[in-house]
Design a protein that fits this description.
Layout: E1 6-10, H1 14-25, E2 29-33, H2 37-44, H3 55-64, E3 68-71, E4 82-85, H4 100-112, E5 118-121, H5 129-138, E6 143-146, H6 156-161, E7 166-169, H7 173-183, E8 190-193, H8 195-226, H9 230-238, H10 259-272, H11 278-288, H12 290-301, E9 310-314, H13 329-339, E10 343-347, H14 356-361, E11 364-366, H15 370-373, E12 379-382, H16 394-400, E13 405-408, H17 415-420, E14 424-427
Parallel strand pairs: 1-2, 1-4, 2-3, 4-5, 5-6, 7-8, 9-10, 9-12, 10-11, 12-13, 13-14
Helix pairs in contact: 1-3, 8-10, 8-11, 10-11, 12-13
Bound molecules: uridine-5'-diphosphate-xylopyranose.
Domain UDP-glucose/GDP-mannose dehydrogenase C-terminal: 312-415
Active site: 258 (nucleophile)
Keywords: NAD, Oxidoreductase
Amino acid sequence: MSGGLRIGVVGVGYVGLTTAVCLAGRDHDVVAVDIDEAKIARLSAGVPIIDEADLPDLLTRTIAAGRLTFRTDYEALADRDVVFVCVSTPSGPDGAADLRALDAAVTRLTQVLRAGAVVTIKSTVPVGTTRRVAKRLRAYGIGAVSSPEFLREGRAIADFTHPDRVVVGADSDTDAALVCAAYGADPATVLHMSPESAELAKYASNAFLAVKLSYTNSLAQLCRRYGGDIGDVTACMGADARIGPSFLQPGPGWGGSCLPKDTAALVFSAQAQGVAMAEVEAARTTNVAQPARIEAALRQSMTCPLRDARITVLGLTFKAATSDTRDSPALAVCAHLAAEGAALYGYDPRLPAIDATVLSSAGVTAVDDPYRAAKSADAVVVLTEWPQFRDLDWAAIAEHAPGAVVADTRNLLDPTTVEAAGLRYLGNGRADGY
Ligand code: UDX
């Protein structure tokens, strides 16, 4: 060890693995534990397992430096100063979080950690969870802190290294100071608060982003009706420092591993407290209506009925710069169109990394070339904002699919180029669009 702390990480999913490699990169000695033996074997061999910029290099460097080890036994955590718990907390059909993995991890930690250690919960958990866990840990002299993550997929290493803010929810100043030392956090970015506030702050932030996105999609719909342009409207909104320009881009709906789960959990827990979280509920309602909006646009503009249509979908991941398809709005649109009888041919730059069964259950036939995917298409639907779609040879696509409708749900393409190729362009929230 080289003067750093002895850190443990439990659960090497997206958050846990990012936390482990970044802390090892900060000269701490890190032991990461997961119950999945195959995952641990691959990580020990330096295989990155998640698709994240800068992660492969940091992983191999920290393993080679002897600062990062992967284990399946909790005994390897016995001497740790701080342990970050990053296990998954999936939500059930009613939106309630499933805390079985978290509770099992805490039980194992009580059996191995020494008194004075601090357990830091990074998993997104319902408000009150950290205090409940703290009660259990106190009997063993172990501290508990809530420190939610705010990492964006595709930028996780950069977000961890240069966070907007570091939230530390702790009653004890000593425990909070230890966690800040582990992060090497700039004191100006640290927000020290109660565990309840920290847990709520995570849900509040993600739900606010979801509200902003659904509001943008509803405004896009209104722009279309009035002949306005959503890009102009959001340019005005975003220039207002009180609003800010991010998360104002219309799309096929929001998705991914966090926003759907966190909004559901917030609505569920608010209801349990007798609070109507009407804004968040409305954002969810708007979001599930987006596939039907796209369906209506295609029905109105295509020359054949949807049930006979051949549709090319460009982009299958939940956003660009990732191969993650969890709760992908692109796949929600595909499943919706497939249920209406359309035949779907899908291309994504990360196709080789996408599980084929996920695509087939959304009714998509994968095609590993965008031009071949467009063969004889009645419509081309852009669903993920991969910048390379803008640079496709749209004249070549028009040769494969003469007269096709191009529905650009992300307003990514240059309408002039698409129209010049002889295709019919439909932007999201634009005068001649949908
Ligand atoms: C999100 C939160 O941003 C992060 O703070 C949290 O910790 C985890 O969840 P991530 O899941 O990586 O991060 O996705 P994000 O970049 O926030 O995008 C969420 C969804 O919104 C995607 O489907 C994306 O395509 C969509 N989106 C985003 C838009 O449709 N328009 C935008 O302007 C921005």
